[in-house]
């Protein structure tokens, strides 16, 4: 799971929300254990416990039921979890997509060449390369536009 470093965001009623608190809550709810969730997040169980208490104080109700042997999600916690899961999954998917883009060549390449060069030399070599690297399936749009104006 990606630990979201969005620090704090001020909402309309003046309360500060730290998104890492929500990530921490989801980890505890999914693991049903503070110690396993703490290992997963790379923090101490004590820090995680304080984080959850702070979140519970902020929402004004318990989100988890703690016993000496297990952790269970309360009804309020289940409702919050249902709200958080899709949003955080979308954020993680977006971050993953951005990371993939980092390794993909991108940008605009402009070439000024003659009609003969485009059709006989450039496009036959460029088309397979674009298909291989980018999965490009289109036609020679730029060359067609260029040639119409010649």
From TrEMBL:
Pfam families: HTH_1
Signal peptide range: none
Residue intervals passing through the bilayer: none
Alphabetized UniProt keyword annotations: DNA-binding, Transcription, Transcription regulation
InterPro entries, per the entry: LysR-type_TF_proteobact-type, LysR_HTH_N, WH-like_DNA-bd_sf, WH_DNA-bd_sf
One GO term (biological process): DNA-templated transcription
Keyword Oxidoreductase: no
PROSITE patterns according to UniProt: HTH_LYSR
GO molecular function, one term: DNA-binding transcription factor activity
Taxonomy, superkingdom: Bacteria
Keyword DNA-binding appears in the UniProt entry: yes
HTH lysR-type domain sequence ranges: 17-74
Family according to the record: Belongs to the LysR transcriptional regulatory family.
Protein name, entry field: LysR family transcriptional regulator
Species for this entry: Enterobacter hormaechei
């Amino acid at each position: 799971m990606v630990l979201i470093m969005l620090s704090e965001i001020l909402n309309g009623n003046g309360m500060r929300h730290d998104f890492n608190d929500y990530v921490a809550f989801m980890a505890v709810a999914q693991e049903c254990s503070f110690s396993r969730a703490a290992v997963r997040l790379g923090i101490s169980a004590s820090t995680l416990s304080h984080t959850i208490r702070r979140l519970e104080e902020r929402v004004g109700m318990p989100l988890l039921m703690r016993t000496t042997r297990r952790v269970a999600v309360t009804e309020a916690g289940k409702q919050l979890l249902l709200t958080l899961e899709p949003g955080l999954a979308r954020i993680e998917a977006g971050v993953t997509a951005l990371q993939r883009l980092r390794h993909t060549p991108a940008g605009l390449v402009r070439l000024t060449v003659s009609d003969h060069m485009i059709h006989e030399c450039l496009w036959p070599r460029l088309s397979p390369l674009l298909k291989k690297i980018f999965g490009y399936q289109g036609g020679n749009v730029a060359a067609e536009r260029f040639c119409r104006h010649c």
